[in-house]
Amino acid sequence: MSRYRLIALDLDGTLLNSSMRLSETNTEAVRRAMDAGLWVVLATSRWYGLAKRTAEKIGCESPIICSNGAEIRYPDGRELMHLALDAEAARAVVTAGDDNGWDMYSTVGTATYMKNRPGIIPDKLPAGLQVADRQSDHLGEGATTCVQVFGEEPVSYVAEHFFPKYGDRVRFSFNTPVGMPHYVNLTHPDAEKARALEIVCKELGVESEEVIAMGDSESDIEMIKWAGLGIAMRNSPDEVKRAALHVAPSNDEDGVAWAVLKFLV
Questions:
Q1: DSSP characters for 139-174?
Q2: DSSP secondary-structure letter at 115?
């Protein structure tokens, strides 16, 4: 019988393939782990509504770590932890993103805003995701949880112009995933996947040595190092692989299923 009781899974680049889909092989493996009595915890940089959709597809009822560790909520909506982003920093970055047409997502209250794109049908977007001509117009609707900026040039702009000014009161998590756009998450300084996972484990009565954590980007490194068994995806940058004890097949090769079958069931 496995000594591990919980597996924490990043979404983009880990549980989801490069088409942002959940494969049947990974779905079956994760459900098999849950049937064996293991906790499955999703830990993502994405907003709660998107993570909840994946949790519902696999039938997961564990707390969800979202917005890069700034928020923990159960699939039924119960909130375990929520940290707000500095309002001044949020407005400065989102306004710059609006002015420059960045690929950007802003999570404010229970909504996440994105810019309009060709082919987008607002009524068919996932629950909670909304199109906004200017995301900064919505910042007063509630506390801002997370701002995500995608693309090498916008990320470099954020690093040059905003990190020096707000780095003492905002966590800037810079990521360079393999084969995907560079991105940066802006959150509360205490928002971090490893810290959030520790909170979840205390909630569920699980020790760190009983945890497997899997991820593919720099945002996952501390979580991978904190867990009893840290696993990086083959599609990870070298820095992430160096932090892990094992390297799994890539997200397009069902690396999560490989880990479940090897270490859990």
A1: GGGS-EEEEEEESHHHHHHHHHHTHHHHTTTSEEEE
A2: -
Q: What is the pLDDT of residues 110-159, one digit of tens each?
A: 999 999 888 888 888 877 899 999 999 999 999 999 999 999 999 999 99
In angstroms, rounded to a whole number, what is the distance separating the alpha carbons of residues 250 and 231?
Answer: 11
H or E segment and range at residue 93: helix 87-100
The CA-atom distances, in angstroms, between 220 and each of 17, 232, 261 are 17, 9, 22
Tens of pLDDT, residue by residue over 35-82, are 999 999 999 999 999 999 999 999 999 999 999 999 999 999 999 999
| pLDDT over 90 at 178, yes or no | no
- Helix (H), strand (E) at residue 255: helix 255-263
Residue 147's nearest CA partner among 83, 90, 84 is: 90
Cα–Cα distance for residue pair 67/171, rounded to 1 Å: 12
Task: Specify whether the CB–CB gap between 256 and 249 falls below 8 A.
Answer: no
**Could you tell me the pTM of the whole model?**
0.95
How many helices (H) does the chain have, and how many strands (E)? 9, 14
Q: How many CB atoms lie within 10 A of CB 161?
A: 13
Which of 89, 126, 124, 130 has the alpha carbon at shortest distance from 107? 130
Mean pLDDT across 221-228? 98
**Rounded distance, CA 158 to CA 161, Å?**
5
Rounded to 5 degrees, what are φ and ψ at 138? -105, 0
Residues in the chain: 265
**For residue 10, how many C-alpha atoms fall within 13 Å in the half-sphere facing its CB?**
32
